[in-house]
Design goal:
The chain is mainly beta. It is built from 4 helices and 18 strands. The protein has 3 domains: 127 residues, Beta Barrel (OB fold (Dihydrolipoamide Acetyltransferase, E2P)); 74 residues, Nuclear Transport Factor 2, Chain: A, CATH 3.10.450.190; 264 residues, no CATH class. The chain has a 6-stranded antiparallel β-sheet. A 5-stranded mixed β-barrel has the order 1-2-3-5-4. The protein has a 5-stranded antiparallel β-sheet with strand order 6-7-8-9-10, with no helix packed on it. A hairpin with a 5-residue loop joins strand 9 and strand 10. Helix 2 packs across helix 4. The longest helix is centred in the C-terminal third of the chain and has 11 residues. It is elongated.
Length: 500
């Protein structure tokens, strides 16, 4: 009769895991077994030990990735098992692990120890998790601002059931009488605790939440928010507030903005840009272009791509999410820019919400930049989006040097404006230490041999119509003129302006 498990003698063992890097990733382990293997690694190296298969419990399917992965045992773990091939002892199976109270740290020169020297981490103490033994190892400071309760840990052995991973993630299911609780702890400090009362306390870092359907919250008591920074609400639909009692608003300043503008109610806010912050400040002489005329002087975000300034990079031309919809027909960008200028409410205040929204719409953190940083390029991008044209996701004016189709480019001190049309995009360039900075705006169609009229953002700290020099010494010149192209095909030029 064949010799197989169930017919042959049942041979069991206990030993120490020395290797868990199973090349076929089945969760197998190399175990040095007492009575079967010597502790002399010269006679039996770790790599000569047979691979032992861990037996999973009945709650794990053990097939096609279903259930729990058999990867919890570490080098230095004590295990018990049996040999399926009997006294040949070459086909070991592991039934479980054994906790103890180690007397020594790992001697990596010998067998029956963790060869990496990591485990055990302490000696003369139980291997059972301290949290399960009634010793709290997690410190959580209650948030007094919102009146959050303190951590409710009062675990007693043997009621707290603890799972801890190698890096320090911990799950507790605590059945301690009158102190029952559940806690999930991330090694970063993020923690969720369900207290004995049923109250839930969460402390976390940043929060990102996407809900594919409706989001409904019913609070039977009061709803309180405490925010150390700004609060921004953006909606593609209506914003409705209904209360059966009073609405009380208290603030040092309250700005009620017009709802007639297209730009302040966008259908889409772009995904966040990947550019790092690189604010370039201007020297006084770089802003003094023409006596009695105020030129843009805010520090500008000059984006670097592989070490190149924005004027040397061809930015991807993006399509608005609303391209082709009845709400976003193809228009001349000067028409949208004019409407926004006439709408008003664009004066820089240090935190103008309308300007902050421009940054948000192009994919920047509006609260970070607001109207303290040059915002002409985010205005240009938002206008192009709202007029059904291609746009680029940038805060750098010089990035528009290669946008759309070329109308004219400066040759030395001269630029030929014969083909200029109303609504064309004008890219002004600065020299000196402010290389990579400048200004971008839309042409009204009026110009002379020395000046050109524009509508743009960040002009006199608002959206205005201004006349700027075509060239102003070493520090200013009209670099190039570009023409907007339709969002659907990227080639059809912007239609003729209808604005008066």
């Amino acid at each position: 009769m064949k010799n197989f498990l169930g017919i042959n003698d049942f041979i069991w063992f206990f030993g120490v895991v020395e290797d868990r890097n199973d090349p076929v990733q089945l969760g197998r382990l190399r175990v040095r077994c007492y009575g079967w293997h010597t502790d002399d690694k010269n006679q039996i190296p770790t790599e000569s030990l047979p691979w032992a298969v861990p037996i999973q419990d009945v709650t794990s399917a053990g097939v096609s990735g279903k259930g729990k992965s058999p990867t919890g045992i570490v080098e230095g773990s004590w295990v018990i098992g049996f040999f399926s091939d009997g006294k040949k002892a070459q086909k070991p199976y592991i039934m479980g692990t054994i906790a103890g109270a180690p007397k020594f740290t790992a001697d990596t020169s010998k067998g029956f120890y963790d060869p990496n020297g990591t485990y055990p981490k302490y000696v003369d103490e139980s291997d059972v998790n301290k949290l399960a033994r009634g010793t709290n190892t997690i410190t959580i400071d209650a948030d007094s601002t919102i009146g959050a309760p303190s951590a409710s840990y009062k675990a007693e052995y043997p009621y707290n059931h603890v799972t801890e991973t190698e890096s320090g993630h911990i799950i507790e299911v605590d059945d301690t009488p009158n102190a029952e609780r559940i806690q999930v702890f991330h090694k970063s400090g993020t923690v969720i605790e369900i207290q004995p009362s049923g109250d839930v306390v969460i402390q976390q870092k940043n929060n990102f939440q996407t809900i594919s359907g409706d989001n409904n919250i019913h609070t039977t008591g009061n709803l309180n928010y405490f925010v150390d920074g700004d609060i921004n609400f953006n909606t593609r639909g209506n914003f409705n507030v209904t209360t059966f009692k009073n609405v009380d608003i208290k603030s040092k300043r309250i700005d009620l903005n017009s709802t007639t503008g297209d730009l302040y109610t966008p259908e889409l806010i772009d995904d966040a840009v990947l550019f790092e912050t690189n604010i370039v400040k201007l020297k006084p002489e770089e802003t003094q272009i023409e006596a009695g005329v105020e030129y843009p002087d805010n520090p500008e975000q000059v984006e670097q791509t592989d070490g190149k300034n924005p004027e040397d990079v061809k930015y991807p031309e993006k399509t608005p999410a609303t391209c082709g919809s009845p709400d976003n027909p193809h228009r001349n960008p000067i028409d949208v820019a004019t409407e926004l200028m006439n709408e008003g409410g664009w004066k820089e205040t240090g935190s103008n919400p309308k300007i902050k929204f421009l940054w948000d719409e192009i994919g920047y953190n509006g609260s970070q930049y607001a109207d303290r940083t040059a915002w002409c390029a985010v205005f240009a991008g938002a206008v192009l989006k709202r007029s059904g044209n291609k746009y680029i996701q940038t805060a750098s004016s010089q990035a528009y040097s290669q946008y759309g189709t070329e109308v004219a480019t400066a040759q030395g001190d001269k630029i030929d404006l014969t083909n200029l049309k109303r609504g064309d995009i004008l890219v002004f360039q600065r020299g000196g230490s402010a290389k990579g900075t400048g200004h971008v705006a839309f042409a009204t169609g009026n110009f002379t041999d020395t000046h050109i009229e524009v509508i743009g953002g960040n002009q006199s700290n608002s959206i205005t119509q201004k006349r700027y020099k075509l060239r102003g010494g070493f520090f200013w010149r009209l670099r190039t003129v570009r023409r907007a192209v339709a969002c659907d095909d990227g080639t059809t030029p912007a239609p003729t302006s209808t604005a008066i």
